[in-house]
Amino acid sequence: MSSPSTSPLAADLRLGEVVGALSYALDLTEGQPPGHSLRCCYLGMQLAGPLGLDDAEATDLYYTLLLKDAGCSSNAARLCELYGADDRTTKRDVKTVDLQSVKQLGRFVLSHTGLKKGLWTRFKLLLNLLRNGEQLATEVVQARCERGAAIAMQLGFSRRVAAGIQSLDEHHNGKGRPRGIAGDDIPLLSRIALLAQVADVFHQVGGADAALAELRRRSGTWFDPALVDLFCDVAAAPAMWQGLAAPDLEASVMALEPTSTREPLTEARMDAIARGFGQVIDAKSPYTSGHSGRVADYCEAIGARLGLGAVRLRWLRRAGMLHDIGKLGVSNTILDKPGKLDDAEWNEMRGHAAHTHAILSRITPLRELATVAGAHHERLDGGGYPWGLQHEQIPLETRIITVADIWDAISADRPYRAGMPLNKALQVMQDLVGGAIDPDVHRALLDALPQVGGRADVESVQSLLASERQLTSA
Ligand SMILES: [Fe+2]
Ligand SMILES: [Fe+2]
After folding, report:
1. Which of 35, 234, 265, 392 makes an SS bond possible with 15, Cβ 3.0 to 4.6 Å?
2. What's the pLDDT score for residue 195?
């Protein structure tokens, strides 16, 4: 394979470019129109100059804005459960609600809770929200903020970025969540990020006038009045709004990162980004907890046994971490559904592979990573998706991810069931050889299992493999 899976990172690839592209996955989870995080970055960065931020502060603001939703997946399953509804719709629509207005909040809860459920289930959901709404709201916001802050630190960003994300939902008058801090106790970067978020949401719905009207309406309650005034001054220039809607918004946002403090995108940083986003993916559903990390481990072990060099192994591990990033765009009503999926749900579930490809393709130098990861549900016999590729059309790296992915899917313990017994799991894999999965890669998995067997202890894997070898060599 050619670059990049056999090559080091392109020297001109920027940290902002990678984070900006991956922020599209966060937009999907939040149910926001694509580019929401980038637009927030554009809007919030308009205040960096007028506020007199130095380059280090402006850089932290830049990444706070791009990653403000890094914790978004951690409360998706819980929201889906509490509202009995599509988490993406709930998350999208709540952003237009003034949560300090009892009337607006009541209307939102009534119009979003258990609409597709039976009357009794809907009643129980509403009763729970009515009785415990305050505590539950704090709980879901807290999960999101703390997780987002932790992810930012894992991605290698500063404490100031983490703090900015952690206090995103605090309000100027102290009626925000989770801590209820007020005024200047709220980090400046959080105050700017919340303002930018509301500005983008209302701009999408009703244009610049609607955005500015909402900011002014919430000035003094949600927002620091001085920041609202400053933003309204900046936003008086039509060019600012034209830039927001321009087709080259991505390039404009890339240009907003201060140059003096730009950090090089090292190989280690790229690994940390893949690992961090792997955790964002895994937090989306309790049913796939830890999946991306384990798939990455299996991939590396299999790849090593197939003789892949260090650079290729590193890319393979990143692809393993990110292969399901498209699942951030799938509703938890589907991901967490205990029963069988209907045709429409199954189509949406299958769509995650194409989403993975689309998100990773946004980083031009990483197009090959996009192809490798996006094809992980292809089968050698052409019966897979999203493209129906066959045999030699499927890169070796993809074949490795496919084997690692299936092995983890059948062998890992889930909240609702234990993993498949080892001998049965091995039989399932054997049955897939030649049709879905590559025989050489399958063999490499069997060789690797004693070292990376997951829940299975080494001895039991080894004894099973010994008997399996006797059978296959017979
Ligand atoms: Fe997948
Ligand atoms: Fe997967």
Report:
1. 265
2. 98
From residue 356, alpha-carbon distances to 92, 277, 319, 362 in Å are 21, 12, 10, 10
Q: How many domains does the chain have?
A: 2
Distance 326 CA to ligand 2 centre (A): 10
Ligand 1 centre and the CA of 146: distance in Å?
27
Round the average pLDDT of the chain to a whole number and report it: 87
Domain contains 261? no
At 11 the pLDDT is 76
Ligand nearest to the CA of 281: 2
Residues with CB under 5 A from ligand 2 (ion): 324, 405
Ligand nearest to the CA of 294: 2
Choose the final residue of a domain: 256, 278, 311. 256
Let me know how many helices (H) and strands (E) the chain has, helices first.
22, 0
Q: What is the CATH number of the domain that holds 231?
A: 1.10.3210
- Residue 55: domain span: 32-256
Tokens in use for 3? 């670059």
324 CA → ligand 2 middle, Å: 5
Q: Just list the catalytic residues.
A: 327
pTM: 0.88
DSSP class of residue 258? -
Residues 6+ apart with CB under 8 A from 52: none
Q: Name the domain boundary from 206, 229, 256.
A: 256
Domain-located, residue 219: yes
Distance 67 CA to ligand 2 centre (A): 23
**Ligand 2 centroid from CA 278, angstroms:** 11
Do residues 133 and 237 share a domain? yes
**Percent of the chain surpassing pLDDT 90:** 64
Identify which ligand lies nearest to the alpha carbon of 376: 1
**Domain assignment present for 129:** yes
